[in-house]
């Protein structure tokens, strides 16, 4: 009986780990993904609510290629209550091939979460990203603001993918004067 419980726990753990690097059934990552064009700084324009960014403004994600071929991920946002930057540093790797916009990101050792780029402007100026399920959504831009046409396009793509756009949060991207 004990061995059955151990095997069951191992199988459940493996399923959970695979599930965290999976993708929603109705969403496909972009093909012909070019990591070199995706690297650099992105500004968070909109997202679904989640605890690790709650209350932050001026949220940015910066991606840099590391010498071992993985991607350095630095997420940071301004906490106006504490009057300081909050930052998380992680590493990303491709789940399958480097030309498919599906990566896995770790901020906590061996535990990875899925990072699925499911829409990308041809000029790499705007991206829509989700995770292993649709509880997570980010609209990212190369600039702190979007044009009305970009915003309309992004919201239409998000809605087409099944996201409730009425639940999106739009963090402030006004420059912070640090004292």
TrEMBL record:
Pfam families recorded: Lipocalin_2 (PF08212)
Subcellular location: Cell outer membrane
Signal peptide per UniProt: none
UniProt entry tagged with the keyword Hydrolase: no
Domain spans labelled Lipocalin/cytosolic fatty-acid binding: 33-173
Gene3D superfamilies for this protein: 2.40.128.20
Subunit description: Homodimer.
Protein name, per record: Outer membrane lipoprotein Blc
């Amino acid at each position: 009986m004990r061995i059955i419980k151990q095997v069951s726990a191992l199988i459940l753990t493996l399923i959970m780990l695979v599930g965290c690097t999976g993708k929603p059934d109705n969403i496909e990552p972009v093909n012909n993904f070019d990591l070199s064009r995706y690297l650099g700084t992105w500004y968070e324009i909109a997202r679904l609510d989640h605890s690790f960014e709650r209350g932050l403004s001026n949220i940015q994600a910066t991606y840099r290629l590391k010498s071992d071929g993985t991607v350095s991920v630095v997420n940071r946002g301004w906490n106006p209550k504490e009057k300081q930057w909050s930052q998380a540093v992680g590493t990303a790797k491709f789940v399958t091939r480097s030309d498919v916009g599906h990566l896995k990101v770790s901020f906590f050792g061996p535990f990875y979460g899925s990072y699925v780029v499911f829409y990308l402007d041809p000029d790499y100026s705007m991206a829509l990203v989700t995770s292993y399920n649709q509880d997570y959504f980010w609209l990212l831009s190369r600039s702190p603001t979007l044009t009305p046409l970009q915003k309309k396009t992004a919201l239409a793509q998000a809605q087409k993918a099944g996201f409730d756009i009425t639940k999106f949060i739009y963090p402030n991207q006004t420059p912070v004067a640090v004292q």
